[in-house]
Amino acid sequence: MQEKGRYFVLKERAVPDVLLRVVEAKRLLDSGKTASVQEAAEKMGISRSSFYKYKDDIFPFHETAKGKTITMVIQLDDKPGLLSVVLKTVAEVHANILTIHQSIPINGIASLTLSIDVLPQTGDIEEMVAHIEEQDGIHYVKILGSE
Question: Are residues 42 and 78 located together in one domain of the fold?
């Protein structure tokens, strides 16, 4: 019996270099900057066999997120207006919030869980997460999953 595929969400720094090079080679091919797999692989310093081995298994997060539900948890300070900034950031990328739950703050820190519907017109999710993370009062943002 074949094992079902399991999915993981990783930050870029945790992904082996060869996989990042495969993603970039795919981007070169898709954009027309290279005409062949051989050319893209050579430009990225990987073998064609590495490209073919991994090409169907790695995608930038934003490519696979369209039309899906993403669940994320955000730990934030209990500071007036901070939740509003998070929600505004989600709205700016045209994502739809399906559920929202904020815990009662303990020692001035609350946990926020958001389920977001990523639509075809939704902007860059990676950029949205980065913008939320850089806000003063945000401790961390973790994507728990996507389906």
Answer: no
Say if residues 83 and 102 touch (Cβ distance below 8 Å): yes
Domain contains 7: no
Token digits for 49? 């066999």
Tell me: do 36 and 104 sit in the same domain: no
- Would you say 117 and 69 are in contact if contact means Cβ atoms under 8 Å apart? yes
- Give 101's contacts (C-beta < 8 A, 6+ positions apart): 112, 113
**Residue 1, amino acid:** M
How many angstroms separate the Cα of 113 from the Cα of each of 15, 46, 87?
26, 40, 12
Rounded to two decimals, the pTM is: 0.58
**Residue-range definition of the domain harbouring residue 22:** 12-59
The contacts of residue 116 (CB under 8 Å, 6+ apart) are 69, 70, 71, 72, 90, 95, 96, 97, 98
Q: Are residues 139 and 104 in the same domain?
A: yes
Q: What is the pLDDT of residues 52-89, one digit of tens each?
A: 999 888 877 655 555 688 899 999 999 999 999 999 99
Total structural domains within the chain: 2
